[in-house]
Design goal:
With about 150 residues, this protein is an all-alpha fold. The protein contains seven helices and no strands. The N and C termini lie far apart (about 50 Å).
Amino acid sequence: MPGKKLTPQQAAYQQKVKKYEPRPNLLRNALLAFVFGGVISVIGQGFTDFYRVVMNLSPEKAGNPAVATMILIGALLTAFGAFDQVARFAGAGISVPVTGFANSMVSAALEFREEGLVLKVGSKLFSLAGSVITFGVVTAFIVGLVHALLPGR
């Protein structure tokens, strides 16, 4: 408990609990995250190639509908309750890519679905996305400003 000073009894209890706490299998978790992250990347690349061929788009422009498709898949998996089942096994491999962003948006919105579509689901859908998008815009602005102000581009 950072920020709160523990009593000697609480500290002793924390030590006892720590002794019996199961240790995660780091190698297994890292390998699963690597494999699932790779599979998601291959699926995303497959969508990029599909949109490039079918819509006759350049590889740079084909990435946009591919990312949108991956976000849709992540949102649908979350809505049907399958994302958490896969994430328990795959770990960070499924949570870190754009599918994890879709999961965090939809899961926040689903918590309030019984309270109304517009006022609760609509507002909660963008509670996390708003901060992420704001961070991205501000960061892009700062990087662009630094790039513009540095001589000798």
